[in-house]
Amino acid sequence: MIIQDVVNHLEALAPLAYAEDFDNVGLLVGDKNIEVTGVLVTLDTLETIVDEAIEENCNLIVSFHPIIFKGLKKLNGKSYVERVVIKAIKHDISIYSMHTALDNAQQGVNDMICNKLELENKRILIPQSETIKKLTTYVPKDEAETLRNALFETGAGSIGNYDDCSFNVEGYGTFNGNEASNPSKGQKGQIHTESETKITITYSKHLEQKLLQTLFKTHTYEEVAYEITTLENKNQNIGIGMVGLLEKPLSQTDFLNHLKEKMGTPCIRHSVFLNKKIMKVAVLGGSGSFAISAAKAAGADAFVTADLKYHDFFQAENNILLADIGHYESEQFTKNLLVAYLTKKIPNFAIILSKTNTNPVKYF
To answer: Residues 63-76: pLDDT tens digits?
Structure first.
């Protein structure tokens, strides 16, 4: 098994197409064609993590946070980032980062938080826009079924709980090939009329390359007529943050104690208490101040996140309980999620959960 094989599994869980534009995800260090000896999963990649990988004979580190976030102009070991990269390269260790691709995945970071808090009826808090696309193409009528099925095999045509969805219209196409053409229907230099089926099918944007490869491979025309449109429809399965329901309403103090117990945080910063029970809870791992308005719009009684600043707490405006549980604490179980996922996908292989606590914040 090579590194690319592991990457394929990771990107099936969290396609990089859904990472935020500012992010740096994917294979940051190493060669995708190298044979894998073992995989070490961590939240952050530090020098101690590289040392752990060496000790465990793992030549692939799967890290949630990217060690290289901004461009590196020098590699002389003056910063912890440079030292990590140098040590990884020296020991032939590759580093793969998932970060906001996993943040936006349906079964990613925020789903894990919901599961830890035992939330039910989960849904995406902020669905990502411009992730649903539409393909329209024209195919000879007697070849329409073959092409449709090939496109369905790529994963296209899935809408919510339904698969193999398409819209089809029958009509007539005309074309006249020039001297350089090699038509599969009709003769070059002659106007040809073909009974065709217009196929319209939607797909998730990360499937586009595979979809087009299948279209060109399966379609018999020399020149394939097709159109691609980006839809404004929200994708309810892709996006950041989640909202769900507790099994039963809790008082605010009981809810915060529930948070402390389930998320393993020694300290919670929160907004002013309100005179109401907590039932609907919004969550967003990592820095989530930008989603306060979305949590309020979703009707959440509480919003669990991290890295809230002084003025962010004023946005509670006496209608939501804001709970800052700490950046590391909100994402710490992500590595457990990845280990469980990879172990299921690649049984009988060394998928190792890092024992190193990489939290740079300490409490006194």
So the answer is: 999 999 988 889 99
Angle between helices 80-90 and 47-55 (to 10 degrees): 20
Over the range 310-340, which residues count as b (16 or more CB within 10 Å of their CB) and which as e?
eebbebbeeebbbbbbbbbbbbbbbbebbbe
Token pair of 4 as six digits:
């690319």
- Quick check: helix, strand or coil at residue 316? helix
User: What one-letter code names the amino acid at 150?
Assistant: A
Give the DSSP per-residue string, 329-362.
HHHTTHHHHHHHHHHHHSTTS-EEE---------
Token couple for 7: 């990457």
Q: Which helix (H) or strand (E) holds 202?
A: strand 192-204
With residue 243 as reference, give the H or E element that holds it: strand 235-250
In degrees, rounded to 5, the angle at the alpha carbon of residue 234 between the alpha carbons of residues 229 and 238 is 105
AA identity, residue 152: F
pLDDT at residue 214 is higher than 90: yes
Neighbours of 143 (CB within 10 A): 17
Is the model's pLDDT at 234 over the cut of 90?
A: no
Q: Please give the distance of CA 137 from its chain centroid, rounded to a whole number.
A: 29
The whole-number average pLDDT for the span 48-68 is 97
Distance (Å, rounded) from C-alpha 257 to C-alpha 323?
A: 11
Mean pLDDT of the chain: 96
pTM: 0.90
The share of the chain scoring above pLDDT 90, in percent, equals 94
Residue pair 294/125 in contact by the 8 Å Cβ criterion: yes
| H or E element that contains 229 | strand 226-230
Bridge partner residues of 353 (DSSP):
41
Structure token digits, residue 167? 């819209």
